[in-house]
């Protein structure tokens, strides 16, 4: 093996060789949100805003405008009008460095390298443990009975037409599977109804909704824990489709490089991460539903009509001294959509692992582009074509595997000389290697979401369709396909060494395919 290369353990038959250094997979993620903030502040990735801001539409407007540029920092609003509790927004933004900080891997990775790092960590599940802490900070304060008042926290109203204030956007919701008994961790929006009730929206087919429906079918209430001040590793994985038969807590441990420490709930039989800032314990009683929404969502639309959602009766709220509320903006423009990069990287790693698990060879890269509805709308797979129908096989599996089935409308296969994280290269491949009449297949009645504005009337949701686009060189004509003009590796390396000398600032563009010596 050449220096600087390593084998990433595949979850299937093949070992994938990549050009990422083993040290980039090492390290331990922060134990809680505060340690994460310390790390990103030292890296220049956190901006503290000390001017007073209004939680009603103003905070979200500031984030939407300030985060439209790539590289925008996380924003900690320290003075929210009427409150003494700060709010963190834009936890990820478009920053791969902040994803790296959450995992404890070195900063400075490319998007492609980050997908590889996540993919490696997803294969290292670590089971959670019960914390032995005598005085865990998150339960320093507990509100019960008449002391419960969600309005104690600066829950923002994001958009003008939102149905209310949303305490849960950058959150993690914990439920228990009534059949297998494992805990599920998911990200779902939560709108405040009154001081001790919140509404919980869960898209059809999502794990927490399946759990709740099964509890209710037995005539039993569903216990719910919601983390409203969430640690970064938990939030990183809570919104991602993982196997429905397993707990996300095992994968969160793998992502951060150490077991998640859990605390037992005091008013439910559930557990929650000890590194949380604000935690709600509640009960969803059978068929107790209430009007929720609308809400400006990750698609950039108020896509779902207002209709009943489960109501959670709050039994207790725990919080640290001087807690931090976490919030995530969903928007039409991906750098200011706080979950877009998160979903892009984690979903790509999931699909890559799914392809490996099924023994599909030759996969060189996977990416879910953040601009496509927050990473949900498009999946791109780069492969080395090895046999007839290889690209079509990859397209069909990537479209319907567990990691990619939800919502994804456009699945694109490209050759191994195309970087799937570079949308310009992908568009070039589509323009020069696909023949629409032969290269596009449609899947009908696939799993989507009630938030998809393209499905009308709304009753058609959550069913949709998928386009499989083969933007690879036609396999049967590979030998005669026009040769691509590419740099020689030796020339590229020489220019890289002289980049500053030549008068250019910053790093030179990275490419990973070159002309072979002739």
Sum up the structure in keywords.
about 525 residues, alpha+beta, Pnp Oxidase, Chain A, UbiD C-terminal domain-like, ten-stranded antiparallel beta sheet, five-stranded mixed beta sheet, 12 helices, about 25% helix, about 20% strand, globular, disordered N terminus
How would you describe the overall organization of this protein?
The chain has 518 residues and is an alpha+beta fold. The chain folds into three domains: 123-326, Electron Transport, Fmn-binding Protein, Chain A (Pnp Oxidase, Chain A, Roll); 340-480, UbiD C-terminal domain-like (3-Layer(aba) Sandwich); 486-518, no CATH class. Helix content is 23%, strand content 22%. It has twelve helices and 24 strands. Strands 7, 8, 9, 10, 11, 12, 13, 16, 17 and 18 form a ten-stranded antiparallel β-sheet that branches. A hairpin with a 2-residue loop joins strand 11 and strand 12 (197-200). It is globular and about 75 Å long. The relative contact order is 0.12.
Write the layout of secondary structure elements.
Blueprint: E1 6-8, E2 16-18, H1 33-42, E3 46-49, H2 58-66, E4 74-77, E5 87-89, H3 96-103, H4 111-122, E6 129-130, E7 141-144, E8 166-168, E9 172-176, E10 183-186, E11 190-194, E12 197-200, H5 207-217, E13 222-227, H6 232-238, H7 248-256, E14 261-264, E15 271-273, E16 278-284, E17 289-292, E18 307-319, E19 325-326, H8 340-357, E20 363-367, E21 378-383, H9 390-400, E22 410-415, H10 423-433, H11 436-439, E23 440-447, E24 463-470, H12 489-497
């Amino acid at each position: 093996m050449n220096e600087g290369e390593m084998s990433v353990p595949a979850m299937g038959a093949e070992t994938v060789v990549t050009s990422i250094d083993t040290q980039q997979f090492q390290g331990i993620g922060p134990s809680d949100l505060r340690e994460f903030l310390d790390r990103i502040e030292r890296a220049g990735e956190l901006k503290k805003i000390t001017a007073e801001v209004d939680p009603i539409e103003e905070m979200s407007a500031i984030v939407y405008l300030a985060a439209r540029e790539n590289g925008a920092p996380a924003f900690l609003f320290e003075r929210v009008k009427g409150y003494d509790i700060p709010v963190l927004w834009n936890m990820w933004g478009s920053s791969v460095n902040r994803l790296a900080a959450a995992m404890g891997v070195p900063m400075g990775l490319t998007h492609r390298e980050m997908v590889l790092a996540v993919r490696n960590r997803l294969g290292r599940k670590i089971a959670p443990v019960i914390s032995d802490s005598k005085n865990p900070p998150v339960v320093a304060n507990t509100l019960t009975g008449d002391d419960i008042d969600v309005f104690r926290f600066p829950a923002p109203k994001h958009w003008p037409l939102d149905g209310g204030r949303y305490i849960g956007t950058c959150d993690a919701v914990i439920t228990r599977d009534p059949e297998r008994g494992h805990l599920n961790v998911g990200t779902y929006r939560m709108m405040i109804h009154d001081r001790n009730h919140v509404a919980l929206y869960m898209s059809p087919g999502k794990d927490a909704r399946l759990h709740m429906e099964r509890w209710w079918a037995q005539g039993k209430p569903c216990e719910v824990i919601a983390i409203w001040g969430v640690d970064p590793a938990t939030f990183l994985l809570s919104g991602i489709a993982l196997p429905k038969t397993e707990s996300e807590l095992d994968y969160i441990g793998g992502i951060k490089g150490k077991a998640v420490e859990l605390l037992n709930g005091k008013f439910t039989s559930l557990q929650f991460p000890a590194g949380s800032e604000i935690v709600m314990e509640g009960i969803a009683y059978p068929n107790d539903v209430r009007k929720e929404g609308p809400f400006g969502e990750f698609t950039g639309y108020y896509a779902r009509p207002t209709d009943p959602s489960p109501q959670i009766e709050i039994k207790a709220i725990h919080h640290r001294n001087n807690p931090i509320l976490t919030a995530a903006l969903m928007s039409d423009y991906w750098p200011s959509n706080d979950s877009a990069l998160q979903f892009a990287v984690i979903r790509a790693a999931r699909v890559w692992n799914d392809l490996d698990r099924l023994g599909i060879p030759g996969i060189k890269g996977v990416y879910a582009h953040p601009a496509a509805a927050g990473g949900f709308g498009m999946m791109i797979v780069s492969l080395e074509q090895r046999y007839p129908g290889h690209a079509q096989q990859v397209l069909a599996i990537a479209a319907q595997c567990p990691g990619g089935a939800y919502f994804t409308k456009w699945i694109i296969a490209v050759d191994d000389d195309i970087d799937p994280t570079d949308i310009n290269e992908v568009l070039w491949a589509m323009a020069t290697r696909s023949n629409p009449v032969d290269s596009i297949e449609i899947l009908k009645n696939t799993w989507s979401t009630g938030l998809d504005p393209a499905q009308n009337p709304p009753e058609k949701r959550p069913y949709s369709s998928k386009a499989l686009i083969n933007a690879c060189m036609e396999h049967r004509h590979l030998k005669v396909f026009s040769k691509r003009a590419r740099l020689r590796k030796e020339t590229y390396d020489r220019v890289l060494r002289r980049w500053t000398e030549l008068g250019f600032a910053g790093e030179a563009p990275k490419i990973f395919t070159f002309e072979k010596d002739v």
